[in-house]
Amino acid sequence: MFNILVDFPLTKKINIEKLGITFRNFTKKEKNTILEFIDNVYLKNKKIIQDAIKKYDIKDELKLSIDLLKYDKLSQEVIMFFFMSKKRGFTLNSIRKIKKLLDNMIIIDINKDILSEYLAEEKYVIFISNILSLYDIYSSDIHFNKNVKLDYSFILNRNILNKKDTDYELNLIINLIMSLDQKMAAMIELSEDYLLCLKKFFSKLNKNEIRRFLNVIDLFYSDNMMIQNKILNDVTLAESVLIKEGEDIKSNYILKSGLILKHYAKGGESINKFIRDFLNYCYDIRSAIVHGNEEKILEIYNKAMQKNKSFKELARDIEESYNNKKMKALSLANTMCFIVNRAIIKYWLENPSIVSYLKN
Predict the structure, then answer these.
(1) ∠ at Cα 193 (187, 198), nearest 5°?
(2) Is residue 206 helix, strand or coil?
(3) Cα(113)–Cα(93) distance, rounded to whole angstroms?
């Protein structure tokens, strides 16, 4: 079970049956339990907190700690936490604001019996993070939605419903009571339409296609240190989605990826030629990396500069040293592969039956 904060109230429970994942609101009992905690721990100590803020300065932290020894341990920790937070400029939410935050929180329930067919339990957080990050692609064609983060695991690990969590009280305080700006808070860019799209999308996939999709988004969000590995991952991703075993990989990569990218690109024959040449370039760079042929990377790069004037425009302003040219060659391939994969994943979400047809 995970909880996330969004900027809208969910109007209905959304159950993605084939994955065993449900997006829902708090139950009345869950909400009351949280409000009871806030009442017992925060409101009960509110006057003490306000008095401490007036009486002590931030340098008097030790003196305040001694004066708080007459209270129970949880109260000591809560009072000290809010004292230090207020002294550092943070404000606290009103009960009205806290109730609104609870209304805009979504619980993500997981049926382990179903999801365990596809993932080990320790991978659940990364998987849910990837699903939430995909909203970037869903919401903005193949452009970037800068409000969507690439990793939400730090938010998903702050569960305000898990009383067994050692940071349970702190999670409640940070998620509900502390008044944080949107960049610091546990706010996630999302929409109900997107969750309904996921429900519809997965309903059309069989188990093998679901496994393929989970592998694809894992590859897409993998954090590779070396740009060469990013390129290998990106071309592998496209292959796994679009190319059937036994097909000529390069020609089908260029054809099928090009068809999908053209769907989102505007322009005539000139954009067709650019896409075709660039995908050819990406695959050749990938092959040079796979075969450890470092010299060939620059050969492919130089040939592309001569063949397509758009390449020259992209590569301008670089120094002509070996390392600079090689890094530029790899960067161009990496950028194009990434854009292509955004288009492929978005098209798959929107047209799963057509993608299945393209592959088979």
Answers:
(1) 95
(2) coil
(3) 39
